[in-house]
Specification:
Blueprint lengths: L1 H9 L10 H42 L5 E4 L6 E2 L5 E13 L1 H4 L7 H12 L3 H10 L6 E7 L1 H12 L10 E10 L7 H4 L1 E3 L3 E3 L1 H5 L1 H4 L4 E7 L5 E6 L6 E4 L3 H18 L3 E7 L6 E6 L18 H6 L2 H12 L2 H4 L2 E2 L5 H10 L8 E4 L2 E4 L2 E4 L7 E4 H6 L3 H22 L28 H7 L6 E2 L1 H12 L3 E3 L4 E5 L5 E4 L4 E4 L3 H17 L13 E8 L8 E9 L6 E8 L10 H17 L50 E2 L14
Parallel strand pairs: 2-10
Antiparallel strand pairs: 1-8, 2-3, 3-4, 3-5, 6-7, 8-9, 10-20, 11-12, 11-25, 13-18, 14-17, 15-16, 16-26, 19-22, 20-21, 23-24, 24-25
């Protein structure tokens, strides 16, 4: 009792605090609850950041526009198949002047800054001073664009020397990239170009625009009390590199001879496509009306005189530029002429409408439905078999073959070979020719006759190359394409574009027969001038009238391949309306093929298949295959062979007047 009284005395005036076990338990539970909540919140924040961190970071950063600048991405390169750069982006610099900084009150920045700019860039001091003073409230004035580093290096060094130049302020350089094409006009129609904002126009630049472009980065500056900036940087993502199927050297060879043919024969157009028949890869593609400077695609000089350009309205300039940029090989259509004949024969053979040894009498033309349709040899070839019909490019024989074939079969094989539809090549602006072909519902007997030798329906060059490749490679139709691979900025593979087999058009037996006939066309038929010394090459000549049948000029062509036994390359040449004495002679296209292939085949490591003729007698006998396995390429000669596919007069192929003496009739399916 005494102890209690003493304790009471000691606590007198003090508030008694009792911390019970119950209170301790509640406090512990509260602490644990808060801890669990914090851990849960941390987990939620971590998940949100992992899932949408960049999104929210961008939102936060985007709100700080007062101190931000764009870090441009670098658009990806376009290369040829071996890595040679055809299109690239180089860093350039825009000079930005900040008048508000230069004219800072109580600071003497104007004169030192202007003097430094005049010294390094040669500007007018008065004009530069006026520019700054006229924009005194601005923080962003572009003085000059797309300067190279060599042009700004002296000034940057001067600015960085703050000890000797402490008052040079308010000038900085904004980085961007400029598209550059090292080979200028080379493969312009295939590559295309870019306009403002890294937007591709025509060619690979347009078709693969999304792959070539990257994502801009941002740099945000936060100015502290010491007037220094602590940057927050989001790095740009550069674009991908597009590896094309184009071969720089083959493209150069083609363009060299295109220019030579233009200078020598003055045609309205010369065009060439080279392709690998076993993959569908386009190795080279060009036409004379589409060779423009990719570094200056808006330039009309070289295509028009100064007087013509001056007389053009803005709309006319745009229209004429569009014609220059247009890729004839992909976007334009025309009547192919006799290069269609192997396709006609292929369909007839495949469906058993004719046999390989069947013969036909050519007496110069056919009388069909009130029209007289002529052969290019109006005096007649005499009796020809199927191979000889190809070799001599006989219209009369082809009309008879088409009559046996019939409308249904003919139209079916037009579709099988891809005529009247887009090939699917990876380039913009491909013409489909849809609506420019007859169908089995509207094709008449005379239409079938003229279609059999390539008149009165339209094709484009890519359709012809893709279909012809299947004629000579065993019957396999591969999708044509100009890009084989896409790589990221570190060289990693983003996508591969391997050969894509679409269908089989004909059997190997028919393909072998046609390949032999086409080789014989060069050895002893209308394609003699397409011969390449040392090589067995094959192909078909073409002499086509234009849509306006009163036009006395022709679209001349040769569609060929090499080597005979294992075709590695298809080459299609067109010479349109040359200004020559014999404008209907296909030899102008044949000789172009020969010139190109004479250089191309050795470069491609295609070895000669026969002895090259020399002035000295051979000292060693030529090595040949055993007689029982050697395939003959010797042609069989008809009664009256054609040395060249050239019409003997300039009158229309189809005439309303029917001459007497035509004893050949036609049948329909």
């Amino acid at each position: 009792m005494e102890r209690y009284n003493n304790r009471q005395k000691n606590n007198k005036g003090k508030r008694l605090r009792i911390f019970t076990r119950s209170m301790k338990a509640k406090l512990a539970r509260l602490f644990i609850g808060v801890l669990v909540a914090l851990v849960g919140l941390g987990i939620v924040i971590t998940r949100i950041y992992a899932k949408s961190g960049e999104k929210y970071e961008a939102i936060v950063l985007s709100q700080q526009t007062y101190s931000s600048k764009t870090l441009p991405y670098r658009r990806g390169n376009i290369t040829d198949r071996d890595g040679n750069v055809l299109a690239t982006s180089i860093k350039v610099y825009n000079m930005i002047i900040d008048p508000k900084v230069i004219l800072t009150e109580n600071k003497d920045y104007l004169e030192p800054t202007v003097d430094a700019l005049v010294k390094c860039f040669g500007y007018s001091k008065d004009e530069l001073t006026k520019l700054i003073q006229d924009n005194k409230d601005s923080r962003y004035v572009i003085k000059e664009k797309q300067l190279k580093y060599e042009q700004i290096e002296e000034f940057k060094n001067l600015m960085s020397d703050t000890k000797n130049n402490p008052d040079v302020k308010g000038v900085w350089f904004e980085e961007e990239y400029k598209r550059m094409y090292p080979y200028s006009t080379l493969a312009s129609g295939t590559i295309g170009f870019t306009v403002a904002g890294n937007v591709g126009n025509w060619g690979i630049e347009e078709y693969y625009n999304d792959y070539l472009n990257g994502i801009d980065g941002r740099e945000y500056g936060y100015v502290n009390e010491d007037n220094t900036m602590d940057p927050v940087v989001k790095e740009p993502t550069d674009g991908n590199t597009v590896v094309s199927t184009i071969d720089l050297n083959l493209q150069t060879i083609c363009e060299k001879y295109i220019k030579q043919w233009v200078e020598e024969y003055h045609p309205t157009n010369v065009a060439v496509v080279m392709a690998d028949p076993n993959t569908g890869e386009i190795l080279a593609m060009a036409d004379s009306n589409n060779m423009y400077d990719l570094n200056n695609p808006q330039e009309l000089k070289g295509f028009y005189s100064d007087e013509e350009i001056k007389a053009m309205s803005d709309e006319q300039k745009i229209e004429n530029l569009s014609k220059i940029w247009r890729n004839f090989c992909v976007s334009d259509t025309y009547e192919a002429g006799s290069t269609i004949k192997p396709f006609t024969i292929a369909g007839a053979l495949e469906d058993g409408k004719i046999s390989k040894d069947q013969t036909f009498l050519c007496d110069g033309g056919e009388r069909i439905s009130g029209f007289y349709i002529k052969c290019h040899k109006t005096s007649g070839h005499g009796t020809l078999n199927v191979e000889q019909a190809i070799m001599n490019s006989c219209n009369d024989s082809l009309m008879q073959i088409a009559a046996f074939e019939g409308v249904d079969t003919f139209c079916k094989y037009q579709s099988i070979f891809g005529f009247g539809m887009r090939s699917g090549i990876d380039l913009p602006g491909e013409a489909s020719c849809e609506g420019l072909l007859y169908t089995k519902d509207n094709m008449q007997v005379a239409d079938l006759a003229t279609n059999s030798f390539g008149q009165n329906f339209n094709v484009n060059m890519i359709q012809m190359v893709a279909g012809f490749s299947s004629l000579i490679n065993g019957g396999y139709y591969y999708k044509p394409h100009v890009v084989k691979q896409i790589l990221n900025s570190n060289g990693g593979v983003v996508a591969n574009y391997d050969k894509e087999l679409i269908k089989q058009t004909i059997t190997k037996d028919t393909s072998d027969f046609l390949r032999q006939a086409l080789v014989n066309t060069v050895n002893g038929g209308t394609g003699k001038t397409a011969a390449v010394e040392g090589y067995d090459v094959g192909g078909k000549t073409g002499t086509a009238q234009h849509h306006d049948k009163s036009d006395t000029t022709y679209l001349l062509s040769f569609l060929g391949f090499a080597p005979y036994d294992n075709p590695q390359v298809v080459c299609y040449t067109i010479v349109d309306a040359p200004q020559v004495d014999n404008p209907g002679s296909s030899s102008y296209a044949c000789k172009l093929f020969s010139a190109i292939m004479t250089e191309a085949l050795p470069y491609m490591d295609v070895f000669p298949t026969k002895e090259v003729q020399t002035t000295e007698p051979a000292t060693e006998p030529e090595t040949t295959k055993p007689e029982e396995t050697q395939e003959s390429t010797e042609p069989t000669v008809p009664m009256s062979p054609s040395e060249d596919e050239a019409y003997e007069d300039n009158s229309p192929i189809v005439e309303d007047v029917e001459p007497s003496g035509d004893n050949v009739t036609t049948t329909t399916e």
